[in-house]
Design a protein that fits this description.
By secondary structure, this protein is of the alpha/beta class. It folds into two domains: 31-165, Rossmann fold (3-Layer(aba) Sandwich); 176-233, Winged helix-like DNA-binding domain superfamily/Winged helix DNA-binding domain (Arc Repressor Mutant, subunit A, Orthogonal Bundle), CATH 1.10.10.10. Helix content is 54%, strand content 13%. It contains ten helices and six strands.
Amino acid sequence: MYYKYSILQTIDIILDIFPQAYGSNFMKQNVRNAICIFSDNSIFKEWTSLSLAKRNLDISFLPLDKLEVKTNSKNYDLYLIDIHSNYMGCLDLFDSIKKKNSNNKIITIIDGGNKDFMNLIYKSKIDGMVSAHEIKADCLNILVEKVLNGEMYISEKYKDIILQNVRENNQIKKELSRREIQIVSLLGSGKSSIQIAELLHCSPKTVNVHRSNIKEKLNIKHNHDFIKYCYESTK
């Protein structure tokens, strides 16, 4: 009998066809992703469990008062964090998660919070952000799937807020000179005026003059607010 393809060629063809037919995750369909859900809301936890029940997930729950991820603790593929209080504590949690493993994914479900806080969350390198009022069972499943596949998901409600902030920051950067932007970056990385003067081959007095001009352009009065701005700008 005559065969058009050799055995090895046939295997190659099958391996090419299967991912196209069954999706890019065909080879990973038996992998059980581990998810950690931080929440104090018993109704939310029950609803989340039911919503994700059809997915092959290893789900664990932790209360929001345990806002830390130790280096020797279990590693999770995804952290789903229900934020409704202790906003600043959650920012520390994000840092500890990413320090443990930069590939860990973070989704925040937010109920409230002002514009500045939304932008702080966005700058914390989260992978998904959605409003507690927008999310439904179908939405949660799509959200989890997208983030686990390496996509970023920001709901429409927060996308507009973040885009507005990006435009405002870009406008501010246009108003600052190249040297002023350089000084903001160096201050944000922890350099002092003396260290910056040495790097830029100028006097500390010149650096301080630049600092005063930058603060005036940004309408920042207090030094600690200025340093905070510099730090956040370098993230």
